[in-house]
Amino acid sequence: MNSRDDHLHWREIVSQLVKRCGIFDLYESRRRAPNGTEGIFHLLKAPDWVNVVSVLKDDAGRTCFLMVKQYRQGIAGITVEFPAGLIETGYRAKTLKPIGTIAPNPAFMTNRCYTFVAGDLHLDSSREPKDRLDEQELLDVLLVPVEDLVDGIGRDPYTNSMTALALYWYQRMEGGEKGADRIRTGA
Amino acid sequence: MNSRDDHLHWREIVSQLVKRCGIFDLYESRRRAPNGTEGIFHLLKAPDWVNVVSVLKDDAGRTCFLMVKQYRQGIAGITVEFPAGLIETGYRAKTLKPIGTIAPNPAFMTNRCYTFVAGDLHLDSSREPKDRLDEQELLDVLLVPVEDLVDGIGRDPYTNSMTALALYWYQRMEGGEKGADRIRTGA
Questions:
Q1: From B185's CA, which of A39, A154, B14, B48 has a CA 20 to 30 Å away?
Q2: CATH code of the domain made up of A49-179
Q3: Distance from CA of A126 to the nearest CA of B (A)
Q4: pLDDT (tens digit, 9 = 90+) per residue, A81-111?
């Protein structure tokens, strides 16, 4: 904590669990600001999230991302996303390199999302791809050409913010300093 | 809806409000999958979000983003973010151009986040910058050099996912097709 920011820091007075909701727990926290203002804040405590960018060639030789298509309950619609959490794609990676971290929602979520890029991917021949899926996660595993995702990000079905950020981290890694220089001079 | 995706679509049986939490309402929704599986899902209904990228020169002539520093209750820490929602920075824009849209969390949030870039910015001399702040939003308005944000995104205090995405949309707009070509050939 930076002492110059003291005037911004709220302090917790009391916190209580309101409801366990499976993928997060809802808490109410009473907090006080340096100026004496008090407020009650609703917070979601959730485990950290992980998503993985995997690059593969498809049968036509195109460079593709390994992605999953599924129904998302929040938006009540289909998304195509990078695999996250415990999703089972049927592939195994020998290496996982961290390429970016973010707070999905610092205003009311406590967690972080870590993105990795997979290296040395191979099909796991020891079992069927969907053997270990959570029973509520009906999904399709897809290979999406890199340019399709780059062109389509932000439009259906590529609307998941964590997938967009994973693509951003991946492009940053691939572009390296050239990318940073480009934006600096373009700005 | 694409008929090829019929096997993925869940249908709502019943939905009920669990708790109003100010910036979102918590609902429980019972839904059924095409294969007959039923589940109860906890969903946050929230209004759509907006954030705004504004570019200004600082006193030293550096190209900067107009940003806000504040305490974020979810991560219990300080972030520096693009202005969002009803935050009052003291500046007025003559134009707002949409540069990107995303679903912050399609798994359990219903809303979208729209990012705009501001054009023809000027200080609103008719009142003090913080006249209309929500009383719980103690914050500082800052000018952050573009290269500081590009270099620092994903590390404290630049950890808000919606800010990272707004930067991505901005870089995409600035880079245009060159950026897309770079990632395609790099991949």
A1: A154
A2: 3.90.79.10
A3: 26
A4: 999 976 778 888 999 999 999 999 999 999 9
Q: What is the mean pLDDT of residues B108-112?
A: 97
Q: Taking CB atoms and an 8 Å cut-off, how many pairs form between chains A and B?
A: 238
Q: Boundaries of CATH 3.90.79.10 in chain A?
A: 49-179
Residues of chain B neighbouring A8 (CB-CB closer than 8 A):
69-71, 78, 138-140
ipTM: 0.89
CATH value of B49-177 in 1.10.8.60, 3.40.50.300, 1.10.530.10, 3.90.79.10: 3.90.79.10
Q: Which of A7, A138, A146 sits opposite B138 (nearest CB)?
A: A7
Q: Does residue B38 belong to the interface with chain A, where contact is any CB pair within 8 Å?
A: no
Q: Taking the model in full, what pTM does it have?
A: 0.89
Please give the pLDDT value at position A135.
56
Number of separate helices (H) and strands (E) present in chain B: 2, 10
Indicate the SS3 state at residue A44.
strand
A37, A165, A175: residue with CB nearest B136: A37
Residue A36 sits at the chain B interface (C-beta within 8 Å): no
Instruction: Identify the CA nearest to A8 among candidates B79, B155, B74, B158.
Output: B79
Tens-digit pLDDT profile for residues B55-77: 999 999 999 999 999 999 999 99
Q: What pLDDT, on the 0 to 100 scale, is given for residue A123? A: 85
- Token digits for A74? 């929040």
